Amino acid sequence: MADDRATADLIDAYGDTIASCQTQLRSFGARDAFHGPISTVWCRADNGLVKSRLNEPGAGHVLVVDGGASLRSALMGDMIAAAAVQNGWAGVVINGAVRDVAALAQLPLGIKALGSNPRKSAKAGEGAVDVPVSFGDALFTPGAWLYSDEDGIVISPEPLAAP
């Protein structure tokens, strides 16, 4: 792990004061461990808002995308993920699908998603930005902190010190 804030150690140290996401997400980026303040997108089979957000300065944030657990079409591919890297995002967590998996694996970005589908999504920009989203029995609130590694994802209302 890039730093000493392993999710299992954070759970051991902070217990029920932090949440863990029960959704089993796969890692697709070259960075297995990442953390940062949360920004969110809520959308359904439409990645217009995902593209828009990841083309803005990320300042080390993690974009959490609630795509309704749909694998019908990808909400992020290699070009949008490359923009996230260029704009300083720490990671992207998608409750849905990605595409261009081989290219994503080469990018220095934390990427977690349910799976992959080569089908493109709509681009109308329907959905909502920076609203609380929930999946895996976890609430992702804009401004809270997300920590992710090979063991999973934990969420804290504030930054956590290493245990």
What is the makeup of the main sheet?
A: 9 strands, mixed
The tally of strands reads 11
Query: What would you call the shape?
Result: globular
- The percent range for strand residues is 35-45%
Specify the structural class.
alpha/beta
Q: What share of residues is helical?
A: 10-25%
Q: Round the mean pLDDT to the nearest integer and report it.
A: 96
Specify the number of helices: 4
Oligomer: single chain
Which ranges are low-confidence, i.e. pLDDT below 50, for 5 or more consecutive residues?
Answer: none
Task: Summarize the helix and strand pattern as letters.
Answer: HEEEHEHEHEEEEEE
Distance between the termini: 14 Å
Query: What is the radius of gyration?
Result: 14 Å
Structure commentary:
This protein is α/β, with parallel strands linked by helices. Helices cover 17% and strands 37% of the residues. It has helices at 7-14, 48-54, 78-86, 101-104; strands at residues 19-20, 26-27, 34-42, 62-76, 91-98, 110-116, 128-129, 133-135, 138-140, 145-149, 152-156. The model has no long low-confidence stretch (mean pLDDT 96). Its cofactor is a divalent metal cation. Homotrimer. Keywords: Lyase, Metal-binding.
